[in-house]
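Deliverable D2.4 — example input (structure tokens):
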């Protein structure tokens, strides 16, 4: 028997053995995905609201609540690391870690924590989602204008009015003398709340416009202002004549500053001044939600993982195909 015939018979034997093994022994031809371990379901942050909590004179507490969306099999050992990073310096202001545990139910779940930061500047808030020691997602938002948050001790429903028809300060000449002028100053206040706070007082300071020297001071008790009502507690001050003045008014409640206002009075017939200031409302603001996926949760994405073969011995389907092709080629050559 020549060499070609021996090889052909051997290849045919391999094919026969492979086919018989597939029919008689289950799993003899290995299925690469048969025993592949179950991957954890995907877990991602879909939103992260931020609200202002307790506010003091120096700090503000931010309530951060990322919402985690889960689908599929259980994602084990989940935790969320929260960070507040100063947007100017890039330094981490505070860090907290919240353990979530195994996530086995589909849908969204909130994970909340409080971050206390300095009440100035702005911050980048991050929530980093982990499964074990692997990062799977990062949610980000920025906050700014924390200095506009009012501490609890300085909150008041009474404030100066700020309308064209109802200015915060009305100043008129009560009596004009040769050297001095008596002015009647009436601050305008409104109660925009539902209660009538007490302990309110307005202090007035008049400064000469060119020198900024204080020419007069006065104070007036406000009394009680009912909800939705306005009041104009007036007082008089005497200042040197023929000068222009800035009038600064400060509203106190139990010794705490709750609002301020400025006006002018022109007594110099040759020159006039105005408040001449631009006011821009700066309030607490949270930026847009951002998410940085960490490549999925619990293993490589479908189709990219390394298959795990079964423990039973057997021939792969690729080997059977190669044997068939080899047998066909040898048989063709042998038949010549």
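Example output (designed residues):
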């Amino acid at each position: 028997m020549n060499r070609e015939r021996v090889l052909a018979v051997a290849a045919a034997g391999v094919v026969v053995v492979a086919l018989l093994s597939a029919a008689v022994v289950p799993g003899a031809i290995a299925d690469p995905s048969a025993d592949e371990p179950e991957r954890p379901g995907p877990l991602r942050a879909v939103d992260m609201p931020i609200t202002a909590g307790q506010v003091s004179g120096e700090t503000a507490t931010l309530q951060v609540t990322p919402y985690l969306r889960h689908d599929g099999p259980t994602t084990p050992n989940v935790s969320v690391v929260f960070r507040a990073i100063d947007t100017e310096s890039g330094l981490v202001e505070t860090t907290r870690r919240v353990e979530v545990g195994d996530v086995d139910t589909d849908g969204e779940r909130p994970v909340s924590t409080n971050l206390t930061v300095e009440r100035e500047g702005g911050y980048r808030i991050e929530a980093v989602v982990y499964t074990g020691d692997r990062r799977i997602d990062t949610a980000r938002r920025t906050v700014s204008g924390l200095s506009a948050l009012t501490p609890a001790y300085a909150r008041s429903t009474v404030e100066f009015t700020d309308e064209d028809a109802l200015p915060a300060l009305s100043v008129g000449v009560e009596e004009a003398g040769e050297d001095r002028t008596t002015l009647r100053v009436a601050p305008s206040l409104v109660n925009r709340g539902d209660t009538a706070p007490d302990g309110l007082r307005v202090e007035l300071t008049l400064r000469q416009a060119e020198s900024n020297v204080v020419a007069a001071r006065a104070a007036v008790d406000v009394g009680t202002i009912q909800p939705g009502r306005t009041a104009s507690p007036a007082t008089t001050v005497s200042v040197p004549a023929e000068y222009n003045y800035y009038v600064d008014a400060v509203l106190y409640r139990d010794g705490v500053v709750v609002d301020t206002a400025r006006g002018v009075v022109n007594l110099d017939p040759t020159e006039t001044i105005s408040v001449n200031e631009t006011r821009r409302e700066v309030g607490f603001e949270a930026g847009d939600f951002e998410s940085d996926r960490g490549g999925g949760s619990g293993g490589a994405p479908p189709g990219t993982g390394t298959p795990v073969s079964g423990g039973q011995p057997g021939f792969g389907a690729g080997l059977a195909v190669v044997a068939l092709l080899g047998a066909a080629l040898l048989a063709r050559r042998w038949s010549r």
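The CA atoms of residues 41 and 72 lie 4 Å apart.
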